[in-house]
């Protein structure tokens, strides 16, 4: 059986957590790799000290959020989890590029009113 790489978009909304739980029950098989992907948008010029500090805080909060999603995965046996936290846009370009870059076979996204899929 082939190992699949599955990307789950990490957002601080219930729909994203529900999507992860659904994927763990319905898609993930022994040996598959789950990549928890959080993309933050700092919307700032990284040259100033304040902007760098803001970007650092957004990245840290993204890792904390991804770790909370990893805790959900830990309740399911034999899950292999990777975490990627990166800066990008709100239109999903960075998400699509990351999925292609790691060679994922599936993307799991929780739909909600402010989802990038509606833009």
Structural class given helices, strands, pairing?
alpha/beta
Distance between the termini: 37 Å
Side-by-side strand order of the widest sheet: 3-2-1-4
Please indicate the percent range of residues in DSSP E strands (runs of 2 or more): 15-25%
Task: Write up what this structure looks like.
- This protein has 119 residues and is an alpha/beta fold.
- The chain has a domain at 27-87.
- It has 3 helices and 4 strands; from the N terminus they run βαβαβαβ.
- It has helices spanning 14-26, 49-74, 93-102, and strands spanning 5-9, 33-40, 80-87, 106-108.
- It has a 4-stranded parallel sheet.
- Helix 2 links the parallel strand 2 and strand 3.
- The model has no long low-confidence stretch (mean pLDDT 87).
């Amino acid at each position: 059986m082939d190992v699949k790489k599955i990307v789950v978009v990490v957002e601080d909304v219930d729909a994203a957590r529900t999507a992860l739980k659904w994927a763990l029950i319905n898609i993930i098989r022994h040996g598959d790799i789950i990549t928890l992907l959080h993309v933050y948008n700092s919307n700032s010029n990284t040259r100033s000290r304040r902007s760098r500090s803001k970007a650092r805080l957004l990245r840290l909060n993204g890792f904390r959020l991804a770790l909370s999603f990893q805790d959900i995965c830990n309740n399911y046996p034999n899950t292999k989890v990777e975490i990627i936290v990166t800066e990008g846009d709100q239109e999903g370009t960075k998400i699509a590029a990351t999925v292609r870059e790691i060679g994922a076979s599936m993307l799991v996204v929780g739909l909600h009113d402010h989802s990038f899929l509606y833009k």
